[in-house]
Amino acid sequence: MGAPYSALRNEGYPAAYGPLKTAVTVDVLEIGFVTAFLIVIVSFIFIIPGIRGWQRLYASIRFFIGSYILVSIMLGLYGMEWEVAELHDTPTYYKAFETHEIEADIGVKIGLNAVNITLKADHHELKATEEVINYNERFHFYGGQGRIGFGRFSGRINREFREAQWLGKPYPILWIAEYFTLDGEDIRWGRSYRLAGYYTWIILWTAFPLYLISLILFFNVVRYGAYFLMATGVTMITGNIIYASVRFGSEMIIPFTDEKKLIFHKGASFYVCLVAGIVSVVCGLLVVLLDYFEPEKVSSFFNVDPLIDFEETFVYENEDEHGETPAMAMSDDAPPQVASRPQFKQRSKTKKTRRQPKPAPRYSQGQEAIAEEPEPETTDHGGMNGDSVKPVNGDSGAVQMSDLQLKEKAADEEAAPPAETEEAPKTE
Predict the structure, then answer these.
(1) CB neighbours of 366 closer than 8 A, spacing ≥ 6?
(2) pLDDT, tens digit (0-9, with 9 covering 90-100), for 181-232
(3) Integer distance in angstroms from the first to the last C-alpha of the chain?
């Protein structure tokens, strides 16, 4: 073997490197979401100088509120801090079958699909070895409950717990994980957390598409976008209610000593989701109210065309006294009725108003009321079967007949035999 291949090798054997064990310090997925959010914020800061006037402030408000709601949904789905508990300087055994105790910091974080268990201790706790006590193990409990035990048909967290036993994980981690594997009588904490996380997971994924639809509608019809934003907030708050109420059984308390006990309480992911839901409902309701009272300002805030949410209505000039428009003539020779200029009214404020009838004229005592006879109509009014209606014999008060009726009457008169008239007797 040549020099390039024999360098850094011992007696010609392949190079062997020992395992490089690094402790888990942060949740990579959570940090990924936060980092992506920060990158988008920095990009938006570079864009802000290109926006003029008040739109700069409006765009900033829309961006930060919208981004906060979106990141809150994702952190609620994948966050591991729905319930947390921690202890400091806790005396405990390090591994099974060892009598030496260590003082360590223990932390537990419960998410919708898994539980994280952390164990940390100072380096001087194990003087005989150079082992670093810095563990962070994750046990998943999503999926079916499975059978009782630790076989292949058992639940996921039971199988992972048995694997951790075979790997020789520290005793405090196994002690905490075992509480989630028990499923009998009133000791069903694993089942309780699994069901609560399962239903909350579904509800939060429902809020995600609702929020995307609201963002799209804000560029079209602002009021509809506000409706979907409120639906998003209600869905997120419902997820918090489900997580807090579906849990059943006794409270899970994990003791290590008489004074050191792990007592769980709601964590950051729970409150981030709750606050984001409240913000969504409040913002959506505020937009709906402002769109009803100040539609022009809302359109300016969202930088949308105000005519998108408006309808075009026509007001006819030849309305009757009740505000009703007469039917247009169906005949071809009838002059078309032309509407006046279009008037744009907001749909939420458009109401069909009727004109009040004119009051009857008052007459002095002894004076007779003279009824005005209507003038004969000069335009056709569209009778039955599309025939125009005309007055008979020019009498404005006579019954009006259509062209078809006039033709039928003329045909009947021609078909009728002439009436025989008696001749007057001749006088001589």
Answers:
(1) none
(2) 888 777 888 889 999 999 999 999 999 999 999 999 988 888 899 999 999 9
(3) 167
